[in-house]
# Entry
Amino acid sequence: MEVFFESNKEVISFCEHLFRKHHQIELIWKTDEKWGNHLKFVEKQPKNELVDMIAGTMVDVFMTHRLRTMIKRIITDYYYYSEHEEIERIHDLTHWIITGEDEESKRLRSNKDQNLILKTLFIANLKESFEFHFDSIVNFRLKQFKDQLISFVGLAIDEFKREEDHQAFIDMVRAYVIKKKPGLSVIHILQGNTFAFFKENGKRLTTIELRVLMKKEPLYIVGLHDNEFNLAPLIAMAPEKLKIYGDDPSEPKTLTVINVFQEKVDFQPISNFPFPYYLNND
# Structure
């Protein structure tokens, strides 16, 4: 088995990854005038095992040295983005889709392991010959992966546009709140599927009371409906101080409130909720 790398960085990375995982591997490293770095493997394992080791290490090298460039090329050449900040954000979202461990990223990539798909492509190429040119395979033989990558970049762009729209909405609501005359001094908020709102004296605001408050506010100006019972009531009440109690400050609707009201918001653990009666009798 012979493998060629044009890049010195990539051949060093390949050897580092390979020997970190497979101590029993032996190879001879030479330089070739035409093809650059030439690795010749001393086959002490069955060929299938050796191919698997080499292909897996090729994936490590590709993900480390080639993926970022390939993603950015798709963003600029296929989707025609040119602004640096936009390209960087779309790249980060694409990388999250490919490598993320959260449920949303797995859903977007249909729960498929892209490393495994890439490894399968490298194995298929390795089995065709005893000579393997990394640059040639990356540039000409990974069409299936590149097509999938184009799709992932498209999903990342959709996500990027949603982020832009959401930020524009947040900015508009924040500007509206800043201009609005302050209402209640303090409102206490309990996290849940829908927020529960409490006055300073511990009285919980009922759905009817919230609806009455919201009817008095032209919520349509900021794109909110009177059947939204998380942010809209707070816009109507315009409290000087908001105290949110819960276990997850990064929960989406909580983050939205924090982004709109900013320094007015104080997030505390649910154990600090001052009206425990409601916790025990919800």
Observations:
- The chain has a mean pLDDT of 92.
- Residues 143-179 form the longest helix (37 residues).
